Amino acid sequence: MSSAPEQEAVADEPLAPPAEIRPGSPTPLGARYRTGPDGIAGTNFALWAGGAEAVELCLFDDAERETRHALTELTHEIWHGFLPGVRPGQRYGYRVHGRWDPWSGARWNPAKLLLDPYARAVDGDFGTRTEVSGSGAALPAQLYGHVRDWPQQPVADTVRDDRDSAPYVPKGIVVGDDTGDEGGADEWEDDRRPKTPWPDSVLYELHVRGFTMRHPGIPERLRGTYAGLAHPAALEHLVRLGVTAVELLPVHQFAHEDHLVRRGLRNYWGYNSIGYFAPHAGYAATGTRGQQVGEFKRMVRALHDAGIEVILDVVYNHTAEAGELGPTLSLRGIDNRGYYRLAGDARRYADYTGCGNTLHVVQPHVLRLITDSLRYWVTEMGVDGFRFDLAAALARSLHDVDMLSPFLAVIAQDPVLRRVKLIAEPWDVGSGGYQVGAFPPLWTEWNDRYRDTVRDFWRGAQHDVRDLGYRLSGSSDLYAWGGRRPYASVNFITAHDGFTLRDLVTYEHKRNADNGEGNRDGTHDNRSWNCGAEGETGDRAVTALRHRQLRNLLTTLLLSTGVPMLVAGDEMGRTQHGNNNAYCQDNATSWLDWSLLDDPEWRPLAGLVTRLIALRRAHPVLRRRAFFSGRPHQRGGLRDLAWFTADGTEMTEQDWYTPGATLGMYLSGNDIAQRDARGVRIVDDSFLAVLHAAAHPCPFTLPGPPWAGGYELLVDTAREDQPGAAEAPYAAGVPITLAGRSVLLFRAVPD
């Protein structure tokens, strides 16, 4: 397929002579600074480009002057060479030569400077230099391998654009292995990873920029950065809450989509990765010539010192190059057919992600890219685990999701990766992509069945309490197979995607107009209830009910068996004003408003969350390592789990099918099927949780002996001020009155 005739061609320019470049080594991939056998220091460059005809290494100085070096060595489809004198901080990219035939999937275009997939730091941003035309700002047309505005739309992506993209492309940075402040790998021997067991974990999903941008205790120059998250003021809140791990929204280098740039917006969440080894340069306070690597490591160290693990939300299912009409930034120009799943019409892409493309993980070199990246973040960057966005897309073999897929098999046997925390978002948008409960042992999963059930119960949309019983007790119907444990379920009510917790009880309809998509984006199925008025209101009764519902939802989450996940700001009443898809709102809509912690209206909510996490940490019966059996675990004991109706009797099979909105859950601390490291049986207090979702008050009879002789009230969500230790216990076997829509948590007093 020919190129556009009116454009200046660079594809046929002669390659630069090899000059002083040496053969180098095909391993490791990427740019690695080292000293050669003759004592000469320099950098080895290695790039997998299976079908390419030639590869040029392009070095850039501070004036953007480019020097090209042909990589003439080819070993096992890896182009490589060693360049003496190239030191950490050097900016570089690649130009890859080959056929241009989009109809067969071949999209090589040497006019396009390409980011090294293994670059460990990136200087610049694809979205910072925009072009302005009659239609407004847009990504530069030079970023596209095809002529973007070709008038014949049916073949819009098939005419090659030969204009040089280098002025508009960020550059990879050579990073040293032991250069400290220059961004190299620090030694981790003295780093103390918390290694929190899964049952003891409490996850806290946060955005590096959004969490720190408005924090008054963080110096302004550090806000929005890795250094800001490492600041004592940020750590203080996390430690005070008691969370054990932060789950960071994507921090891999990502790009902004053209449709957002055209609307004057930016990709805020970061689910548009383009560099799987590079910390996103936009979150660096210290510089982007490799310094961001050291800054990220210092953040990890600071979190570890505070006892907090670091889990990365990673996006290996697709890249920022999108579909056939997307830009050529890296993989597409290196080997389009080798990196991406193509459709039957090889000009197009198989899209299981809804983002235009899907990485072809079945290919060995793609699988190597992903696993090399994962190991790098564990061994050299110090992270403790990963949450895999659209993980079902990674588990597809040829087409179908396959739990024996190469990706899952490699993870299961990898000596580094099988030891870290692995969380699947167990679905994608393709056929058969919903896989909740299907991932193998070693994996935990975001449990959206938990989310939906708890939301429905508290908004009064459930006919009975059957499903609620499963969700409260660890979702054994989903996970009690193959040796999996209750902590396979990551329980959550909200996540970055959707309403905040406060918005969940304030809005029934999304309000996404600011996203510029006509309110069509974002889910319509929010399972929310506005408590009687849409949006913010001055009605005190509605406001009081909303606060109670927030307490109900958070208490339910933190008392459920499994691993709870909170979203940053939910503990202080953060609102996005009804926007349930704020992926492009890099502004006060998404940033945490820390003044809420000083607001008398919202301060008690954070206090309740802190209290519940501390209670969970103190009592192993609330964070079980094995599923309940419903049987005693010692002679003369009680069942480890018992369920009660409102009249204080144990539920029968028929009771589970009877309409109702009240459920009592008794957890026996004397019947835990678990021993400590010395082999001693673990014994704990016993607890009774009573959940009542109906609007009207209801009598509830507290179970009598042998369950308890009395009950000490610990939590009452009908109250803003929680019970104190001095309050008199309740007698067993007598009725109490449950306030409408409330949760009570009691400690059982022995008979």
Account of the protein in words:
The protein has 751 residues and is α/β, with parallel strands linked by helices. Helix content is 19%, strand content 19%. It has 16 helices and 31 strands. The strands form 8 sheets. The chain has an 8-stranded parallel barrel. A hairpin with a 5-residue loop joins strand 3 (54-60) and strand 4 (66-71). Helix 10 (448-458) packs across helix 11 (466-472) and helix 14 (540-559) packs parallel to helix 15 (603-618). It is elongated, with a radius of gyration of 28 Å. Residues 5-18 and 179-186 have low confidence and may be disordered.
A few lines on this structure:
With 751 residues, the chain is of the alpha/beta class.
Number of strands: 31
Q: What is the chains' assembly state? A: single chain
Share of residues in strands? 15-25%
Compute the CA-based radius of gyration: 28 Å
What structural class results from the helix and strand content? alpha/beta
What is the residue-mean pLDDT, rounded to a whole number?
93
| Biggest β-sheet description | 8 strands, parallel, barrel
Number of helices: 16
> What share of residues is helical?
10-25%
Distance linking N and C termini: 85 Å
Give the overall silhouette.
elongated
Question: What is the strand arrangement across the widest sheet?
Answer: 14-15-18-19-20-21-22-23
- What low-confidence regions span 5 or more consecutive residues with pLDDT below 50? 5-18, 179-186
